[in-house]
Amino acid sequence: MFTGIIESLGTISSIRSSGRIGKQLAIETDTDLDGTKIGDSIAVNGACLTVVKIDKKRFDVDVSPETLDKTTLGDTKTGDRVNIERALRLSDRLDGHLVSGHIDGIGKISRKKLTGNAVIITFDVPVSLSRYIIKKGSVAIDGVSLTVNNCDEGWFEVSIIPHTAKLTTIGIKAENNFVNIETDMIGKYIERFIGTQKTPGGKKDVKSSIDMAFLSKTGYI
User: What is the pLDDT of residues 48-61, one digit of tens each?
Assistant: First the structure.
């Protein structure tokens, strides 16, 4: 579990084949990863990966074919800059929002516009993701926790302050660049809870006892 608050930027220093169609990435970070050990989870551009080798500022991760197919890591190149966040500790402040590191899809930057000291960025996303993106809700873009300014079917926009632009890859991304998108997990769970579910064995549909009336009555909406 992560928060979407980026700890460091990193650089892809090498890419090697791993298995038949997997890859192993070596990443040089801008700061020491004190306390990190083999087996720990690290989010790289928002994708949760497992450390298989570590040496001060460098760590290696294996990337499965599924992750390569569903995220921008499949197109990453040596020299690319990436966002780095280590897993959340239960004693940490939750400054962003709950981020699982499981990418829902890929979006594309369709527009960047400077407004005052902020950059307004519009992203095109698959329509299937639009239902989980709400105005003033949270979204993780390449692992960065951001607030949705506005949205509609197939797109949404966020406002990037100078601090975020400087400390993450969002600041160097250009129009038509692709990014990893993770929508707010709470919305996905609510949809699952209020929908129709299968009984064990999948033989019968059972309507959940949690519906919009229940959520309203109990003060959730």
Answer: 999 999 998 999 99
